[in-house]
């Protein structure tokens, strides 16, 4: 690509980087939409649909936001300000969190439906690296897998890079067997040797059924269990009750098929399990589902083996030193409650802890509150109401559940400001609406890709100037930090100074890197890349866990307070199932026998993102519902009906 004579690198030389999905290919087309927000606006009438706004300047908008935040900080406490986790996550997770911590609030309102939950669950079972290194789309050494189980993952549609889907199909061509576990059959599932259409939200029942067979029939790796597992006896006793028949009643998979697949998993050497948001982040039993899936793979002797999940050699150090942007978590002040309970500083001020207050995810000192639960506090006042909320490139009315409650929260909150490329429905409730530049319209993001071949570092290339007075998320945070008096801790308000500090050890400045359209790539000495060990270093892998062993009965969480603080967590997977389900609520199921499950990502859109791009919308012009043909026929529904 060439922009005004300047070549723009289209990839970073890493295998798989060219395999973009349609969304990634077409994303720049959204820049020229006639619906773009162009100027800062202030609401001048009542909140709600049809709200009226007046145009104001950036200085006036920043001054009103800063003065309101500082007044509320003094009156109610800094913790009453929260930022809703957006699509622009890389900015909020660094610069946004730094602003929050300097302000004194731990209330980063994370969406709670992506990645963090899986990662936390993995940490409590295996101590860090999960099956396939926490990556459901580009697993480690998949080419060595004899059997690949894709469980609740959608690598064909849910990510920008298509490398994972391609590798999975390549492994099948090389002889690997594929098992796909998900409610809906899609093109990738059609390539599987076995498809298990599990009922939504019942994956834990299936995993417990697998464990019942694997342990009950003695199919596990006895040496691994003897030497590297703690609590196996308790787990074995616990899963005795979870027979394939018990699981079948809940998950809808025939008991005999549960037995057959469990035996296949145990027999494959190795078996790699890929899992995604569908099982660990977006289900009522998400934590214990991930724990149980981890145990299915681990006790069969797969963990850390090439093709079995979690690279036993550990992560490769980057060949280019890149500093992290510090989020200033140490600036949060511990309360007496934090000190008395041994909690991280600021934990007592979480409005809706996403994890129990005592838990800190290894490698990340940052605290989180839940997106929806934070909004709910405005309505309930429990444990205290948020007074100011910032929606940074997120639409609360469609991004989370119970839109009627979210609407009530947006109506009630003292101060609400939003920043987006488009005026979404939630903006009608905002006091201030700010126009956002796309990442294609600024060059404030340093990117790094670390691979066995070497390390790539480059600056996000600007394709065009933003329209009107739109600014980047970086510019907002830096200007707001200065206005609130935090400028000395925000590089004097200079984005360039921040980026140059991040790049200091590379020997390049941000501007020098911008002038390198192909970025900077430093190859790795092949001699420094160790082959995956045939026998993983479990001592290193489990070093941070109780007794230095894999947690079959989870001593990390067992007996500890839950996130609500109203009970203790179990040490073994306890099945609850969906709040409404065929087996869980049979009376309701008799009246409403169909189960609805939404699809948040498909080839042409992700939630509502990219629905405005004509080239994509042409292929998917209308909302759709997919039903089993027999079910549709029984209700008189035909293809194309409205």
Question: How does this model look, in words?
Answer:
The protein is α/β, with parallel strands linked by helices and 642 residues long. Among the domains are: 33-112 and 370-436 and 471-493, 3-Layer(aba) Sandwich (Rossmann fold), CATH 3.40.50.740; 116-313, Dimethylsulfoxide Reductase, domain 2 (3-Layer(aba) Sandwich), CATH 3.40.228.10; 587-626, no CATH class. The chain is 32% helix and 12% strand. It contains 23 helices and 21 strands. The strands form six sheets. The protein has an eight-stranded mixed sheet with strand order 4-3-15-14-13-5-6-12. It has a four-stranded parallel sheet with strand order 9-8-7-11, sandwiched between helices. The longest helix is centred in the first third of the chain and has 19 residues, at 58-76. It is globular, with a radius of gyration of 25 Å. The model is unreliable at 129-138 (pLDDT under 50).
Brief write-up:
By secondary structure, this protein is α/β, with parallel strands linked by helices. Strands 4-3-15-14-13-5-6-12 form an 8-stranded mixed beta sheet.
Itemize the secondary structure elements and their pairings.
Blueprint: E1 2-3, E2 6-7, H1 22-26, E3 41-43, E4 53-55, H2 58-76, E5 81-84, H3 89-103, E6 108-110, H4 116-126, E7 147-151, H5 163-173, E8 177-181, E9 194-196, H6 203-216, H7 222-228, E10 229-230, H8 232-239, H9 244-251, H10 255-267, E11 271-275, H11 277-280, H12 286-299, H13 336-341, E12 369-370, H14 371-380, E13 388-392, H15 396-399, H16 403-412, E14 415-420, E15 432-435, E16 446-451, E17 454-459, H17 473-483, H18 495-503, H19 510-514, E18 520-523, H20 538-541, E19 550-551, H21 586-591, E20 601-602, E21 605-606, H22 614-617, H23 629-634
Parallel strand pairs: 5-6, 5-13, 6-12, 7-8, 7-11, 8-9, 10-19, 13-14, 14-15
Antiparallel strand pairs: 1-2, 3-4, 3-15, 16-17, 17-18, 20-21
Helix pairs in contact: 2-17, 3-17, 4-12, 6-9, 6-10, 6-12, 9-10, 14-16
